[in-house]
Structure formats: structure tokens, C-alpha cells
Amino acid sequence: MSKERILSGIQPTGGSFHLGNYLGALKQWVDLQESHDAFYCVVDLHAITVQVDPKILRERSLTSTAQLLALGLDPAKCSLFMQSHVPAHNQLGWVMECLTGFGEAGRMTQFKDKSQKSGADRTVVGLFTYPILQAADILLYQAKYVPVGEDQRQHIELTRDLGQRFNSTYKDIFTIPEAYITKAAAKINDLQDPSAKMSKTNSSPAGVVDILDAPEVNAKKIKSAVTDTGREIKFDSAEKPGVSNLLTIHSALSGKSIADLESEFAGKGYGDLKGAVAEVVVEYFRPVRERTMELLKDPAELTKILKVGADKANTVAEDTLKKVYDAMGLIPRA
Ligand code: TYM
Question: Whose C-alpha lies nearest to ligand 1, atom 7?
Fold first, then answer.
């Protein structure tokens, strides 16, 4: 039986991915490449919805690629590519824009949050249509599952709606995808504000663990994490969001269950927990950091890997786009 298809994407924002990206999504990417027909893209077109220095974007795209490989993506097991290398993403993006209601796009909470923060004059149209391009990313590949963190759930819902709308209006072409969200680490929170998600754009630097940061920097951040009143080390996300976040991080990286960690830390203090989490995080990412630096020494090899990925992606994407255009009545070029 052929393997089920999955697709996911990540923005090349910042010089490093953070712990939330890894636990919420990338860890699952690595696992799922073993059992699924996996397509993973670095969504550089999504990243230009905020203005970014071209030199920095170039660097980030390569660093993102190197990091994904260092974290365990294997080009022999998955297709890893840059979104901008596959023009069909923009082409299907336009088709999807023509199927999306204005109000429907306006209800996307990430758009509402971001546009409210920067004000209407500084909000670009690309930020508004961002989730529609994301829908095209997914639908092009006929993906059955989309491994993401909890914050992407609404975008996957929109993708499903648009896929279904196309199928019922024109022709049954698209596979309707499902979000693949692991319960345990669907939302990693900010170390300084454990009621908010860890995020490159919203969190203060002290609240975010960048996986490429120096071990001592990350150890310090974790040891300075905000914890809760009381002394008991117990998982309770409502009453003890700080401690619960640290337990989640430890458990996801060490593989120990939350219950085992609660017994291990019974009678111990918050300082002990923070010290243990710092060690787990630092040791987990030490080899990833080293491997990323190593891979970045050979950018030609990275671009070669991306070319192989883009070639595979293009074949699938072109095939879907052709069917879509045909179903809509766009005549093919002679
Ligand atoms: P991005 O680049 O913001 O994040 C990449 C992935 O990391 C997850 N994530 C988190 N998970 C748990 N806790 C957190 N604090 C946390 N922060 C981020 C995100 O859920 C995501 O899975 N719109 C997408 C990129 C995208 C995409 C796609 C994803 C474009 N096209 C097609 C899937 C399929 C985004 O901005 O992710």
C-alpha cells in the first residue's frame, strides 16, 4: 500500500527555530518521514509578509534548511524544498483567493492579532491572504495530514473549507487534509509569560529558547523562567502554567512521562526542576547546533538538496494545478 501523504511548512523567520517550533511541529516532521510520503517546505513567500533585509532572508533560508537537516530530516526519506521554488504555490494561491470570502479571511485570528498590533496602514494585503496561500501549499500536494502546532488549527480549518468548496463547485480533485497535532506539546509557552505561546514575534527574547543559541544562554533563560506561587511540582496548566510548561518541555525531550517527573521531583523545589530542564534542553540541542554549523559550511550542498526536493515537489504540484485549471475551464497552452 502506498504511504499517506503529509505536508507542512515553516517560516524562515529569525536566525534559529525555537523550542515551540520543534516540540509543536518539527519533532513530528522527523518522526513522520519514516512512515509517510512527506513534503516539507521552508515558506519563504510567507516570510515576506513582513519586510526583511534581502541579505538576512537569504541567510535565514539556508540556516533554516541546515537546521531542519540537523534536527533529523533526511532528504532520502522526505522532500525538503523552498516554497518559492515551486511556482504552483502562487498559482493555486490565486485560485483559492477567488474562492475565499472577504469576511472569511478577516476572521483569521492570527491576521486579526497581527494587524491590530501594527495598525491598518502598516498591514500589507499579503498578511490578509497569508492563510489562503497556506491552503494552496497544502492542497497542491493532496496531503492527508498536516503536522503543526495548535496555533495553526484555524488555518487548517480554512484549508479544509476551501478544498471542499472547490470539490463541490468544480470537480472532486482535492484530498481534504486534517491537522496532525500532538496533544502533549501542541503549545509551548513563553518562559517569561507562561500564559502566552512562545513566539518569535510576540515574546521577549528572555521568553524564547532558540535552539541554535549557545548552551549557556539557554541554560540561563530556563533557570530564569517565571514559575508559580506555591512550592509543589505538579502539572496543572490553569493554576501552575509556568511549572506545567517546564514539565511539558522536559517530558517531550526526555521521553519521561509527566507522572514520572512529578514523582521524581516530589519534595524538591522549583530551582531543581529548572536546573533539570536546562540540562535536558542544552544536551538535546548541543549536537543539533554543532551539526547545523557544520552543514552551513557547504551552502552548495544545501542548495543541491533543495533542488532535488523542489523537483519532486514540482512534479506533484504541477499535476494538481493542471487538473484544477482544467476543471475551472482555463484552456491549456497549445
Ligand atoms: P510558523 O513558522 O510560525 O511555525 C512553524 C510551526 O511551529 C509551530 N509552533 C508552535 N508549536 C507549539 N508551541 C509554540 N509556541 C509554537 N510556535 C510555533 C507552528 O504551529 C507551526 O507548525 N503558517 C505557518 C507556516 C505554513 C504552513 C504551511 C504550515 C505555511 N504554509 C502549510 C503547515 C502547512 C506558520 O506560520 O508557522
Answer: 21
Which residues, 6 or more positions from 53, have their beta carbon under 8 angstroms from its beta carbon?
none
- Does ligand 1 have an atom closer than 6 angstroms to the CB of 251? no
Let me know if 1 is exposed, middle or buried by CB neighbors in 10 A (0-12, 13-18, 19+): exposed
Evaluate: CB of 43 within 6 angstroms of ligand 1. Answer: yes
Predicted pLDDT at 186: 84
Please name which of 222, 281, 227 lies closest in space to residue 250, comparing C-alpha atoms. Answer: 281
Distance CA 198, CA 285 (A): 17
Give the 3-state secondary structure percentages of the chain, helix then strand then coil, rounded to 5: 55, 10, 35
CA 273 to CA 262: how far, in whole Å?
Answer: 10
Least confident residue range of 202-211, 273-282, 291-300, 315-324: 202-211
Distance, CA of 146 to CA of 7 (rounded, Å):
5
**Ligand 1 closest atom vs CA 151:** 20
Tell me the pLDDT tens digit for each residue of 241-261.
999 999 999 999 999 999 999
pLDDT tens for 99-149 read 999 999 999 999 998 888 888 788 899 999 999 999 999 999 999 999 999
- Give the span between the Cα atoms of 262 and 240, in whole angstroms: 13
The separation between the first and the last C-alpha atoms of the chain, rounded to the nearest angstrom, is 37
212: amino acid identity, one letter: L
Q: How far apart are CA 135 and CA 48, in angstroms?
A: 17
Phi, psi of 15 (to 5 degrees): -80, -15
